Amino acid sequence: MRSVQLFVFLVVGVNLVLGFRSFARGRSKGGSLGEPILNESHALPEDQWFEQFLDHFNPTETRTWKQRYFVNSDFHKKGGPVFLMIGGEGAASPKWMVEGQWIDYARRYGALCFQLEHRFYGKSHPTADLSIKNLVYLTSEQALADLAYFIEGMNLLHQIPAGTKWITFGGSYPGSLAAWSRYKYPHLVHGAMSASGPLLAKIDFQQYYVVVEDALRTHSQACIDAVVAANRQVHIMLRHPVGQKGLAEKFKFCSPVDTQTKRNDIANLYESLASNFAGVVQYNKDNRRSSKTSNITIGTICDILVDEKRGTPVSRLAEMSNLLLEANGEKCFEFKYSKMINELCNVSWADEVAEGGRQWMYQTCTEFGFFQTSTARPQLFSETFPLEFFVQQCTDVFGPKYNMHLLEAAVERTNTIYGAFDLDVSNVVFVHGSIDPWHALGITKSSNPRAPAIYINGTAHCANMYPKSENDPPQLTEARERVGQLIGEWLKN
Length: 493
Ligand SMILES: *[C@@H]1O[C@H](CO)[C@@H](O)[C@H](O)[C@H]1NC(C)=O
Ligand SMILES: *[C@@H]1O[C@H](CO)[C@@H](O)[C@H](O)[C@H]1NC(C)=O
Ligand SMILES: *[C@@H]1O[C@H](CO)[C@@H](O)[C@H](O)[C@H]1NC(C)=O
Ligand SMILES: *[C@@H]1O[C@H](CO)[C@@H](O)[C@H](O)[C@H]1NC(C)=O
Fold this sequence. Notes:
Elements: E1 6-8, E2 43-45, E3 48-53, E4 64-72, E5 82-86, H1 101-109, E6 112-116, H2 132-135, H3 140-157, E7 166-171, H4 173-184, E8 191-195, E9 202-204, H5 207-217, H6 221-238, H7 241-250, H8 263-282, H9 298-305, H10 313-327, H11 337-345, H12 357-368, E10 369-371, H13 387-398, H14 404-418, E11 428-433, E12 453-456, H15 474-492
Parallel strand pairs: 5-6, 5-7, 7-8, 8-11, 9-10, 11-12
Antiparallel strand pairs: 1-2, 3-4, 4-6
Helix pairs in contact: 3-4, 5-8, 6-7, 6-10, 11-13, 12-14
Bound molecules: 2-acetamido-2-deoxy-beta-D-glucopyranose (4 copies).
The site of one 2-acetamido-2-deoxy-beta-D-glucopyranose has 2 residues, from loops.
């Protein structure tokens, strides 16, 4: 069963797609899972390719393409289960094949491990480019059918005995897919660990910034007050040439604020500022691969914001913004709406946005919404980036058909085909963290004993999926243990 060719992992050239990159300025943010911290002595599995149908819902469509996957049989014991990590809105990382909580479960239960990259992300390119006529094949339903065909294919290829139990794992959007895979294909998927998965499609995801604000409050009310005071100063400075110049200098804007600056540029500017908070909160202390941003926590930014010795509130906000700018390796703060739209209009796989920006945007505009607007909390970011700003992006990137009417129908469709919070499944565990904004669209209370929820006080996005660390709070350790027990119970019956 050792079908993997392993190679020694080199520290250079690792993929940097996930994590803060998914916080691309101005766009609706996915919640993507980052990468686990890697023990450098591990070898990583090579890319493998699975031939997949382009369109699972048209029996007369025979075109196929090659989907990337990884396999690790190191922990597999005869008669053991199969674990499948579901890829999401970014490139799949082979690091997950050797690190992470699910690997501990694999050791414990002797599982054979696979990871399947999501169609249209990473190296899994079903079509020649990302034009709109090709993106029609990018849907969660196609992705779920990919999983079904993949399971059938691997059962055959690896001669996996009949009756072997497959358990799916996913965090963030793949967390939704994990739960839905059990729902749609129960004869193939025996159980699912769904971490931080949104189950309710919603156009205006206002609660996102409510949770962000609540998370900042765990530091202090003073932290929120400082942001409010800073924003008030930004509003005022934006109105006058002297203030505009001052802001451009403080925040290192790539272009000046002047008479050429449009309303959408300003919305984009505010949304980018807010994104900084969202990013820090969503990934707060989550044991991701140590990157330059992973040590910037709620504590780090709030300590800066409340420190009056550092200058006026707006100067402190700029200091925080510049800290993240530098950590992300960006030279200046880009707020030009047209520049962002131009990048998202590029249909080439070679382009940077081919790493997921355009594709995820397509899925939000046609399936999920999830637009993180500022309209719920006039306190923190007031009405600086309303729903219209995001709907406009759908129209500007994909065309006039991609408007509010389409979004309303799209979201209703998604909730109808999957059942939203009424999703009726068994052998699924929903895991969420209280400071992860995505919990607001997920199941956090156990009402169905066959599909319990674990709501962890104080943890961020997908925290239970990363490798454990000494700094984990006890409730996180407990959640990891509980999930392990549940998997054990599912495997027994
Ligand atoms: C990395 O893996 C090696 C070999 O399995 C082990 O000896 C070492 O303790 C690990 N290091 C860390 C930091 O976990
Ligand atoms: C984070 O770590 C980097 C080194 O990787 C260090 O230069 C930086 O000062 C740290 N930032 C904070 C806020 O602790
Ligand atoms: C799209 O991106 C690719 C790669 O960055 C670039 O070579 C190409 O010129 C871009 N196309 C357009 C139309 O901007
Ligand atoms: C969550 O943790 C915080 C601080 O650790 C505590 O103050 C709060 O009461 C806890 N909430 C619940 C519901 O346990």
